[in-house]
């Protein structure tokens, strides 16, 4: 059986876990924390998540894992049939990663570690986040999913890519992505209401104490 390596507090881990559950692909969840010898043994970057496929190949990078799952398990596809719409799904995933998740992640130490950042960094992060929010507004149709009536990988990716912007925006930038993108709050509530999202959120909550203990250990 396929193994997903990572930890349930991780938003990137949860993107892949959600896709596996949505596709109905059986998997073992191997709880392992970043940059440990155990993680480095399955992923040279040391980051979560990683995957050992049924044939024993070790892969990493959440978007690569999603593409692999679509190739290896084409049934219950999370990509639309139409290649033009598929392109839009990939565009939304990339925008979510580059201009929302990664930008906001820069300020995670400001929230979790209460570390002060120079105003220039805060301004720079906010301007990238605004670019992401503007792009989302232009590209998503919320009908009710991001590209229409069917759930796609773009919805799954964005749900977890928003975790850190939702946290750091209001706390450090006086800015809230949920308020600036019309339709996003309703979409988010719809995404959170599914059995799969609720299971993932419950697993994340249950992992919080152990993860916080892991990151507060002296390295
Ligand atoms: N580009 C990677 C990012 C994964 C990532 O940043 N994972 C976090 C956990 S949410 C991590 O392992 N961080 C540890 C580190 O950056 O050293 C992906 O898409 O899988």
Q: Helix count?
A: 11
Predict the CATH topology of the largest domain: Glutathione S-transferase Yfyf (Class Pi), Chain A, domain 2
Could you state the order of secondary-structure elements as H and E? Answer: EHEHEEHHHHHHHHH
The helix content is 55-70%
Task: Please outline the major beta sheet.
Answer: 4 strands, mixed
| Broad structural category | alpha+beta
What's the number of structural domains? 2
**Top-tier CATH class of the largest domain:** Mainly Alpha
**Strand count:** 4
Strand order of the largest sheet: 2-1-3-4
| pLDDT < 50 stretches | none
Roughly how many Å is the radius of gyration? 17 Å
Q: Averaging pLDDT over every residue, what do you get?
A: 97
Shape descriptor reads: globular
CATH architecture field of the largest domain? Up-down Bundle
Bound ions, cofactors and other small molecules, one mention each = glutathione
């Amino acid at each position: 059986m396929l193994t997903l390596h990572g930890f349930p507090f991780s938003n990137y881990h949860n993107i892949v876990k959600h896709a596996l559950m949505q596709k109905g692909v059986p998997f073992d969840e191997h709880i392992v924390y970043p940059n440990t010898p155990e993680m480095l043994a399955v992923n040279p970057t040391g980051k979560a998540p990683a995957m050992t496929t049924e044939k024993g190949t070790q892969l990493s990078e959440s978007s690569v894992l999603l593409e692999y799952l679509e190739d290896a398990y084409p049934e219950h596809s999370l990509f639309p049939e139409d290649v033009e719409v598929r392109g839009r799904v990939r565009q939304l995933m990339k925008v979510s990663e580059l201009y929302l998740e990664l930008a906001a992640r820069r300020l995670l130490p400001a929230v979790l570690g209460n570390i002060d950042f120079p105003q220039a960094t805060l301004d720079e992060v906010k301007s990238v986040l605004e670019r992401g929010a503007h792009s989302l507004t232009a590209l998503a149709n919320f009908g009710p999913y991001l590209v229409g009536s069917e759930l796609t990988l773009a919805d799954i990716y964005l749900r977890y890519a928003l975790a850190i912007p939702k946290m750091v925006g209001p706390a450090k930038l006086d800015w809230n992505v949920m308020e600036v993108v019309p339709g996003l709050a309703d979409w988010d509530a719809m995404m959170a209401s599914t059995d799969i999202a609720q299971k993932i959120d419950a697993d994340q909550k249950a992992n919080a104490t152990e993860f916080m203990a892991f990151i507060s250990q002296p390295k």
